[in-house]
Amino acid sequence: MPHIVVVGSTMIDMIAYAKRLPEAGETVQGDDFALGFGGKGANQAVMARRCGATVTMVNTLGDDVFGDTTLKNFEEQGVDTQFISRVPGPSGVAPIWVEPNGTNRIICVPGANNAMTVEQVESAIAAMPNIDLVIGQLEIPQHVTAAAFRSAQARGIPTILNPAPFAPISAELMASADWLIPNESEFASLHPESKQPDSDAVIEAFAQAIDKRLVVTLGEAGAAYSDRGAPVVRVSAPKVKAIDTTGAGDSFVGSFSFALSSGLSESDSIRLGCLCASESVTRLGTQSSYPTADQAAELLRSVRGS
Ligand code: RIB
Q1: Which end of the chain is more exposed for a tag (fewer CB within 10 A), N or C?
Q2: Pocket test residue of 9, 10, 13, 35 for ligand 1, highest count of atoms within 8 A of CB
Q3: H runs (alpha helix) in 63-165
Q4: What are phi and psi of 134, to 5 degrees?
Q5: How many CA atoms lie within 13 A of 118 on its CB side?
Q6: Residue 53 sits in a domain of what CATH number?
Q7: Interval between CA 20 and ligand 1 midpoint (Å)
C-alpha cells in the first residue's frame, strides 16, 4: 500500500444546518447541528486512509480539548500521528453553515495550524524512509508547505497542492508542486484573466502556462485533467442528491491521491475521486460523510473493473 504524507490542517467543524442563512444583524433558527472532525488536510488524510493507504499526518494542534479529540480521531482512523505536535493555545476551528441544497459557507480560524514550522516538516519528511506522495493545501503557512514539498522533490517524491481555501500562491510553493487540484472557483481565482474552467481550451492553456499536471474538480460535472497542456480528459460523476457538500473536494483529493500512488492511471484515479466525493455529498457532515473502508474498497473494485 502506498505511503502518503499529508502536511496540512486540522479543524473542528461546527456545522449548522438551516433553511436560509441570516442577513447582517439577523438571527435565524437552524434545523440541526453537528460537531465533527475537519480541516482540509485531516479530511484528505482520513479519506486516503479509508481507501487503504498508509497515511502520516504532519500538523500542529493546540493544547485544548479539540486537540485531544483530534489526536484520538486520527488514532481511531489508523492515521500515523508521530509528527503531530502540540502548542499552547487553541486548535483550528471551522464554523460552517449548510443550506438545504447542500451548499456551504465556511470560516476557518486556523489557531495552532499557523504554528507549524519549516523545521517541523523538514525533519518529519527526512525521518520517513519510504514516501510515495506528499499532499498540501492552503490552511497552513505557505512557506511551510513549500519547505515540505521541496524536501519531497529532492527525493523524487511527487507533490500535490490543493489550493484551498483560495489565496494567491507564492512562487516558491507553486514551483514545488507537481500537481495542482483546484475546484472551479479556485481555478478562476488562479487564472490571470479570472476565466472559468468552462472549456477544454481554457483548461489546457492554463495547464500549459503553469507547466503542471492539472485536475479541475467540477462538482456534479465530475473533473477535467490536462497534463501540462495536453488534451483534456474528462471524467463524469454519478448523479446523486446532494444534502451536504462540505469536504467533498477533500474526499476527492484523498481518494485520488491513494489511487494515483497505487499505480492506477490518471483517469481511473480521477474516477475514484469522483465516486468518493459524490458519495460524501449524500450524507451529512465532513469526515462522517466519507465512504467507510468497506465502501471505498467497493468503489475501488468498480473502478478497477470498469
Ligand atoms: O473542505 C472542507 C473543510 O474546510 C472543512 O472540514 C473545514 O474544516 C475547512 O477546513
Answers
A1: C
A2: 13
A3: 65-77, 118-127, 142-154
A4: -120, 130
A5: 7
A6: 3.40.1190.20
A7: 20
Q: Does the C-beta of 128 come closer than 6 Å to ligand 1?
A: no
* 232 domain residue, yes or no: yes
Please count the structural domains in the chain: 1
Cell 460523476 sits on residue = 237
pTM: 0.97
* Enclosing domain of residue 101: 3-20+32-304
pLDDT per residue as tens, the chain (306 positions)? 999 999 999 999 999 999 999 999 999 999 999 999 999 999 999 999 999 999 999 999 999 999 999 999 999 999 999 999 999 999 999 999 999 998 899 999 999 999 999 999 999 999 999 999 999 999 999 999 999 999 999 999 999 999 999 999 999 999 999 999 999 999 999 999 999 999 999 999 999 999 999 999 999 999 999 999 999 999 999 999 999 999 999 999 999 999 999 999 999 999 999 999 999 999 999 999 999 999 999 999 999 997
Nearest CA to ligand 1 atom 6: 38
Specify whether 250 is catalytic: yes
Q: Note whether residue 27 is domain-resident.
A: no
Q: Is 25 inside any structural domain?
A: no
Q: What is the distance between the alpha carbons of residues 34 and 187, in angstroms, rounded to a whole number? A: 30
- Tell me, what DSSP letter sits at residue 30? -
Place of cell 492506477: 264
- Ligand 1 pocket check for 162: Cβ under 6 Å: no
The one catalytic residue among 13, 132, 250, 268: 250
